[in-house]
Predict the 3D structure of the following.
Amino acid sequence: MTFSSRTKDELVRTPMDRSCCLISELAAITQTSGSLGFMGGGRFTVTYEVEHVGAARRIYRMLKEGLRLSPSLHVVEHRRLGGQKTCVITVRETDAPKLLTVLDMMDGGIPMLRRSVPRGQLNRQCCRRAYLRGAYLGAGSMMNPEKGYLLEWVAEDASLAQTLDRVLEKSGIRPRVSERRGQQVVSLRSGQPIVDVLAMMGASQAVMEMENVRITRHLRGNANRAANCDMHNTDRTMQAAQAQLEAIRELAEDGLDNLPPALKSMAEIRLKNPELSLEDLGACMDPPLGKSGVNHRLRRLMALWEKKHTGGVPSDRKEDTVD
Ligand SMILES: [Zn+2]
């Protein structure tokens, strides 16, 4: 089962204890997955179509237990779509006006699944959370966080996208609103806002799973950075050792006998042991020498090599003397 549908499983189990929130959630579901059917003579029905069975049961219970209506629920199997199922909940013409009045979706006796929600409703934090939950059940999905951070709502029209945008903004979250194949997509694309929204909607299990993924990713990222850093340092050490070795080989072409004895023995030992670390080189010396002593002598050898190449002129004035 996908992370997205597991999250829906969790959301449909959240309690429906406040009537203000029940209306807010149902309003969001009606706007995202409801449609009107006109029967003539001013009569109409409201139909909800959802794929998630748990969401369908929740809508049914909201209508029946929350609003005391008599909806019907049946499942349609699409043979053409490989047996994919859609749950259809219908509110008949006898109940539909009552439903839309409660949801404030009647305008002068005319049903409108208005794409905006009354301001008063969205001023309450509890109802904003319920609205986001309803909109997620009706039109939301999210990517498995192990693959990437993406939670989105697909809205049929711009004003529904605007409402979602406003509700999120009031909760301190700034979504991205874009268009995809004629539909509006409201999306969150980073970890923190997704965790915040999951928490607001009441999906605490999903929040925990998501936090685990984020921690693992963070640790893995740190380990990679540390490994890259080690590799970088090793590269630099090897490059420096290689440059020294080449310099000493060049000096040796002229013979090492005219070097001071301390540098002569250092050069000889380096030439014989090109792979040794500074500490190990020091241990080969007689008498043994510490790392900084080895380093110092190698630098002096490098300086001699540089002097040879620049004709005795310090390296920062090298360019002036070339030709
Ligand atoms: Zn509320």
In short: Residues 124 and 284 are 78 Å apart (CA to CA). Confidence is low (pLDDT under 50) at residues 314-323.
